[in-house]
Amino acid sequence: MDLNATEHILFAGWAVVWLLTPLIGWMLAKNWPGLGPATRRAILAICVLSLALAGCTIFAPWALRGFWANAINLGLAYLALSTLLWLAFRKCRKWLAVLAPLAIHAVLGIQIFVCLVFANNQIPFHQMDLGHGLVARIYRKGFMGSSFDEAVLVLRPRGLPLMEHRFYAREIEYWECTETSAKLVETTAGETVQIVCGTQVLNTVPVP
User: Fold this and answer.
1) DSSP β-bridge partners for residue 25
2) What one-character-per-residue DSSP string does 59-95 give?
3) Per-domain residue ranges of the chain
4) Between 84 and 119, where is the model more confident?
């Protein structure tokens, strides 16, 4: 995966979302009374679902399958949050109904664009399908002059076709390994995943 190209796409996508979000939120708030009850319930349900999935991605070991699925949903969650803010201030005085959502939108936008400066740390450098619903991802990270890999293992349950569960993560310093990878090992006790560097096994992780 081209990290630079992916990061540029993320910046461009978030810029478009950030510019369009206030307009969409304002239009929905303005036309909200004219929408039917079913339409309003559907919009609110989509907003809540998108925010719940984004919360799982950020705060829990569960996420949508794949980097781009989560990136797109985070953009939708931001739109959903903005929509709910515009609706919450809809019945306030006219100046407050406009200025309050715009002020919150500006603060959130600054925070998001600061986070995007470090977006390359969240883009997989290498991904390996190990079989049995297991995926290993290697991230190239660095901070304050230090560089390291992060090996992440996720399980994709058959019963949840759109979701994946992150059950292991380990930082690997460059002095330990210059090229991190992983492999699945089947044993009599059950499958395990080995985090390896060449012929050296750095760690053995049981599959949940």
Assistant:
1) none
2) HSSEEESSHHHHHHHHHHHHHHHHHHHHHHTTTS-HH
3) 3-120, 124-206
4) 84
Alpha-carbon distance 149 to 6, whole Å? Answer: 19
Which H helix or E strand runs over 44? helix 37-59
Cα 77 from Cα 125, distance rounded (Å): 25
Quick one: how far is CA 90 from the chain centroid? Answer: 30
For the stretch 122-170, pLDDT in tens is 778 788 888 888 999 888 776 655 567 888 999 999 888 889 999 998 8
Q: Do 42 and 50 form a contact (C-beta atoms < 8 A)? A: no
Spatial separation of the C-alpha atoms in residues 72 and 54, rounded to whole Å: 10
Cα dist. 128→11, 50, 168, 194 in Å? Answer: 26, 28, 15, 12
Per residue in 11-48, pLDDT (tens digit) is 788 888 888 888 888 888 888 988 899 999 999 999 89
Taking only the tens place, the pLDDT of each residue in 195-206 is 888 778 888 888
- Neighbouring C-beta atoms of residue 118, cutoff 10 Å: 12
Residue-averaged pLDDT of the chain = 81
3-state secondary structure of 176: coil
Phi and psi at residue 127, in whole multiples of 5°? -130, 135
Q: pTM for the complete prediction?
A: 0.75
Output the pLDDT for position 110: 73
Q: Rounded to an integer, what is the distance from CA 25 to the centroid of its chain?
A: 22
Joined tokens for residue 159: 């019963």
